Here is the input.
Amino acid sequence: MLKQINPTGVMSETLRRALPRGPGFFGLLGAQCFLLTSTYFPQQQSPATPEPESAEATVLPGDWGPELLDGILSSPNGEAADSLRRAAFAAGPAIVPQLEAALKDDRTAEFAAQCLAFIGGEKATQILGNLVRDPRDLNLRRFYYAALGESNSPEATDTLLKVINSADQEQDRTVPQAAILALTVRSDLKLVPRLRKAEARIKDPVIRDDLDNAIAVIETRAQLLASAANKSTGSSIERAVRTYFLPALELPPPPPTSTEPAGRPAPARLAVHIETKNLTFSPDQNRALARVNFEDGSAEAQYDIVLQKRSESWTVVSVWLGPVTEKPAAAGKQDVKKP
Here is the structure.
């Protein structure tokens, strides 16, 4: 099976479980509202009445904010952190200034960077771009690169390819992996020669495998979208998600060989199952965060997929790989390439 790419660098299943559905989500949304009133985030506060000197009075009124947020994010119950990220996405661009402030605290920096990438927009992208020069060892720039695939500009493409080409000099492998995964949302065959050139020069075997997988995904999707059956990439979220996973769902038939007639049936494929488990929408309903479970005979994986509505049609703009569970190899069956 081809390798999976994890731009966040987090593979712990207990911290990335499937998201809950029910009143717990709204409880955490309420908790977030309390967090945003903390003096940790830059907001005006009413003058406080002086309290009598005591042990409790030594704790400033706003100090509990980052600590509470960190407690939720580091909970062994993965539902807590996942629901909080969805609550932030649902709040949308209005909390971008607070997320920018949260980047300054090591305890909440990764959460803030992930939420900014989910929310998107010019301001959030600008803030993420500043993380390229962040002096800390958190490697937060991987969130910027993972979100940069949303832009189809030549400058964004050049930036991602530059990161990929520097993979052998990068201490954190998740940084070039984030750039590779960002490009898998594209179906532009013009990317393929540049990715092959990068693959030829890079020595890291893991990055080479990731590039090989990305090239196969981009090529296969482009070929399938060129066919009459897949001309429409879809107006619905489900169809947009299906389009992203098209290389795994509809592998093109292999070319016939001299000893194998063209009409001979293709080898049996592993069954592929894709399920959208949870959907969260932005305040304007033009952006969505989907939790997608992908399963075939060889592995089971969770993805967080961000979609943007463009000209009344939903499009996948960034993909974030969660936990992957390998299954025993199916002997004699064809592997399915996954983005």
